[in-house]
Every structure is written in C-alpha cells, then in structure tokens.
Amino acid sequence: MAEAIEKPAKDTEREEVEEEEEERTFEELGLDARLTRALIKKGISKPTPIQRVAIPLILEGKDVVARAKTGSGKTFAYLVPLLQKLFADFGSRNKLAPSAFVLVPTRELCQQVYTEVSSLIELCRVQLKVVQLTSSMPASDLRTALAGPPDILISTPACLPKCFSAGVLQPASINDSLEILVLDEADLLLSYGYEDDIKAFTSHIPKRCQCLLMSATSSADVEKLKKLILHNPFILTLPEVGDIKDEVIPKNVQQFWISCSTRDKLLHILSLLKLELVQKKVIIFTNTIDMGFRLRLFLEKFGIKSAVLNAELPQNSRLHILEEFNAGLFDYLIATDDSETKEKEEANEENNVKLRKSRRHAKQKLDSEFGVVRGIDFKNVHTVINFEMPRSAGGYVHRIGRTGRAYNTGASISIVSPDEMEIFEEIKSFLGNDENDASSLITPFPLLTKNAVESLRYRAEDIAKSVTKVAVREARAQDLRNEILNSEKLKAHFEVNPKDLDLLKHDKVLSKKPLAPHLRNVPDYLMDPKTQEASKIVKLARAAMGNTQPARRHRSNKNFRKSRDPLKTFTAEGSGKGRRGGMKRGNHSENTEKPKRKKSI
Ligand SMILES: Nc1ncnc2c1ncn2[C@@H]1O[C@H](COP(=O)(O)OP(=O)(O)OP(=O)(O)O)[C@@H](O)[C@H]1O
C-alpha cells in the first residue's frame, strides 16, 4: 500500500523517496539487531505502515511529520529510530544536556512513553539513561533527574520553563547537546495551552537538531508547530488519514448505538454489563466527573466495581489506576474526557465560586496536564461505551481509538438520548455513514432486548433514586481523600516497600450503606432466552480470545518488571507468598470471585 509522502521544499537536496514496498521487515528498514530483538521480545515482529515509512526517514536524519490513525504504532515509529541514533552517538562527547527531548501533552502520556523507552533500553541492554519530568516536581527533584545529564528527557512542555528558571537546564547546553526533538500528539500540545512554552524553547533548538512531529489528527495547530520548529520536513500522511475528517475508526472496531431516554441510561448500561452482553475490559466515558461518580456508585450497588479516572486525582494515583487497569486488575474504568471535562468543570467552578467559599474544603484543582483519552495505549480494552455522547466528532474518534489498537478487534456502544441525537447525527455524517464501508457505520446494538431491559427496571430505578447529588458529592470527596492518602502513602511507603504496590486498590466500594447481596447476580428467571443466548455468545467470543480468566489482583512475577522507582513506574512486582496472604478477602474486583449460583436480584 503506497503511503502518501509529501517531499520537502525544493530548496534542499533530498533524494527521491521511493514508493514503499509491502511488508518490509524491521531489519530491512535498517534497524539495529538489538532493537529488532527487543521488539520481538515484546511480541512485535512486523512494522505497521507508519513505521515502515517513518523509521528509514528518521534514521536518515530527516525532519518528519507523521499523521496516522489512533493505535497505528506512532510511538515506536519515532522511539525506535531515536534510540538507534543514540546508540551510535553514545559516549561521543560529554554532554551538558540530554541529546533527545520528547514532549507530550499529558502526564499520563509522559509515563507511558517513559515506560516504553525504559523497556526498550532494558531489552537492548544499552547504557542509555531516560528521565521523565512533570511540572509538579520541585526544583530539587528536577536537579536530581537532570544530573548526569540523562540521554533522553520525556516531559510536558510546562516543565521546560521551570527547568530554565531553576537553572537545572541551560539554554546554551541545549543548543550544544540537542540532537533530536519529538512532539508527540502534536495537535494536542497547543490545545493544552503549551504554545508559549514551546515557543520559548524553540529559540534554543540548534539548527542541526532533527525534529519529529507525531499526531493522529491534523489541525491548524499542527501547521503552526510545523512552521515553529521544522525545517523542510517530510510529511507522512497514510492514505486513510488526512485531516481529522478522513480519520477513520480502525477497521477492526464495530460501532453500535442504543437509543433511550436520559433517565434510562443507567438502566441500559446496567443491562449491558450485568447481563454480560459486552466483552471486558470496558472503558465508559462520561462528560463530567460528577456523572462518573454517579455511575460508579450506581454500578457498585450491583456488585460491578470500577474506578473513576479524572483530572482532580493526584498524578500518582492516576498513573497507578492506569497501570492497574492495563494489568487487568479490574475490568471497568470510568473516564472523563480531557479538555472537554476541564472546560466544563472550570466553567462550573467559576459560577460556583461563591457557594464554595461557604464550604469547608475547596474542590481539588483540576490538573491541567491530565489526559486519558488521547494517545494513552490502553491494553486489551475490548469495549468503549459512550454513557454520554462526546461533544465533538473528534472527541468520538479519540474515545473509540482506545479500543481496536494495533491489530486487535474492539467494539463501541453509544447510549444516545433524544437531546444527544444532534451530535450523534453529526458524528454519523462525519464518519461518512457509507453502507459500503463498515468502519463508517454505527448500527443498533443487536443483543439487548426490551424484555431484558424491563426485567431490571424496578431494581435499577430503585437504586438510581438512592444515588443522590449529595451521595455523589460525598463519594467524589471520599474518593479524592482515599487517593490523596494513597498518593501520600505512595511517597512515604513504596520507596521503602516497592513490592506492596499491588495492595493499593482504586475500585474500593464508596457507598456508605452495605451492599445488598441480592443485587449482585441476575436470577435466571429474569433472563429471557434471547438474552441468555446473547450472553453465551459473548462468553464464547471471550473464551475464543483467550480472555476467560477474571481479573486477578496478583499476577505471576513474569508479568511484571521489577519496579525501579515505585513513584514513577507503578509497575507492581508479582506478589510474594506473604503478600498473597496479606490481601484482604473481598477486596478484589467482583471478577475474581468464582461465579456463584444465580440468586435473586
Ligand atoms: N509493529 C507493531 N506490531 C504490532 N503492535 C504494535 C506495533 N507497533 C506498536 N504496536 C502496539 O500498538 C499499540 C498502539 O501503539 P501506539 O500507542 O504507538 O499507537 P499510536 O498510533 O501512538 O496511537 P494514538 O494515536 O492513540 O497515540 C501499542 O500497544 C503498541 O505496543
């Protein structure tokens, strides 16, 4: 499949870039054997289309703008050649600043890229040093992190001015040492308000520095960044991705929708999850943090435990929740969109400011570097549910992009109320809604019958009434207290006992009242034959995918790398004998319990 490659301006000598043949291997791309072996150890044997084109160009030292759809392997497309160039450069001269900078829009992405780079360096057994910075780090930590200096720096742009003002990074040293600069999720960098930080930084970038810009979407912001830091770049745009308009949902994602009233959304999502009509793991998107907690409280009354990932949690907790969810320690994650939530919450913040003065505790400030939709590589998420519709078609594309990543299959279900029909129609027309192109179609969800929904109505409405605004606010405050405590505990405890990371639980029951056991299981008499059949199909599909084991709190040692720095990697070590006994029973996510005989609900 030929990739669209725009060549740079004519005023520079550039050899013709021949059309890309199909299926070139990593070796044929000129990759160092250590990197090829490392990728194979990670189960990656053949390059994705964007990698096939980008890696040789980056190895040749070209500036590159790479646009490819979500989940297409953009991270390795720049990390792998970046590392190879540093292998060659290693020890060449004593540097006063890192040779490579990778700038990303959110802390979660910082952590994700840091983990990927660390893993590749470890597998290649090379002496390269990588650090990640976040703007909440005090100057002393920044100084420690940059001592040496490291070879690779991963950071959000907001940290750079802090490093300059603290004197831990000198512009002259950057000008002397910087070889390669990457802006990942580039279109998001400016929308997160980093333009001034990036502009201030670009004045220190040496002319010889190779600059790479990665994004799943293109926008005016990307154009702005191109002018700011790139010199005659190669523009790589895979055929199926032009601007966000051509951004198609990965072909391996089936998209469904359910129409219901706003009032019945809780009933419908309960039916989907309780009747096991969707494949785990599941990410459920809401548009506000309050709705996320309302949903969490409602579901936990039926024994469905989840965690709410949102902008007000401490960074350590957010990263640990992502780590635990990716490790399969719980199956349901409720997430709020990045910028959309922030805007809405901050808008609420302003007009509630007088009310809050009377409150004892001011609401936790939202972390401006929060982001769990764009770019985060969730592992084995099979279903994305839009409990509330996103406010834009781009938001829809990036939410759905959390499933069906790389070559995996996935599904999305949007629960659409009448007042969301307008944005739903916009999304459908945006995707093309072409009868001949399955990936542009959103079809009615076939497995949920009216009978099945009605059979749960009484219980659902009864419980929904008990989840009041006050209960939601209290749960949100309680969760925040738990997580701040976890986060503080992390600082103190895990430096000494890194192995106990997996004792932290983020899906603790928040309800004050004891859970009613009879709500935990759906009795057979409430499951009509069609629903029972549908549930069996989903279970068989899950078994076929080898995803039959319920979430486990403890995984064998081989699944977890030894955590180097517990506050950074949050990679829990496999549990030793003593710890397994130490895990309190009943604190597991409901999936770890043996399925009980169905009792009345
Ligand atoms: N050549 C490959 N073969 C198979 N899987 C791959 C390959 N390259 C990367 N992956 C895997 O694909 C997943 C998505 O990769 P990555 O996060 O880089 O995608 P992306 O294009 O950056 O997505 P997003 O637009 O959401 O940032 C990751 O789990 C990664 O390990």
Give a topology summary.
Elements: E1 4-6, H1 33-41, H2 49-59, E2 64-67, H3 74-89, E3 100-103, H4 107-124, E4 130-133, H5 139-146, E5 152-155, H6 159-165, H7 171-177, E6 180-183, H8 186-191, H9 195-202, E7 210-215, H10 220-229, E8 234-237, E9 253-259, H11 265-274, E10 282-286, H12 289-300, E11 307-309, H13 315-326, E12 332-336, H14 338-357, E13 383-386, H15 393-400, E14 410-416, H16 421-431, E15 442-444, H17 450-466, H18 469-494, H19 529-544, H20 566-569, H21 577-582
Parallel strand pairs: 2-7, 2-8, 3-5, 3-6, 4-5, 6-7, 9-14, 9-15, 10-12, 10-13, 11-12, 13-14
Antiparallel strand pairs: 1-8
Helix pairs in contact: 2-3, 3-4, 11-17, 12-18
Mean pLDDT comes to 77
Global geometry? globular
The span between the termini is 54 Å
- CATH fold topology of the largest domain: Rossmann fold
How helical, in percent, are the residues? Answer: 40-55%
User: What portion of residues belong to β-strands?
Assistant: 5-15%
Profile the largest sheet. Answer: 8 strands, mixed
CATH level 4 superfamily of the largest domain: P-loop containing nucleotide triphosphate hydrolases
Quickly count the domains.
2
Ligand inventory reads: adenosine-5'-triphosphate
Strand sequence of the main sheet, in spatial order?
A: 1-8-2-7-6-3-5-4
**Would you state the CATH class of the largest domain?**
Alpha Beta
Biased composition (Basic residues): 551-561, 577-586
Domain Helicase C-terminal: 265-453
Pfam families: DEAD, Helicase_C
GO molecular function, one term: ATP binding
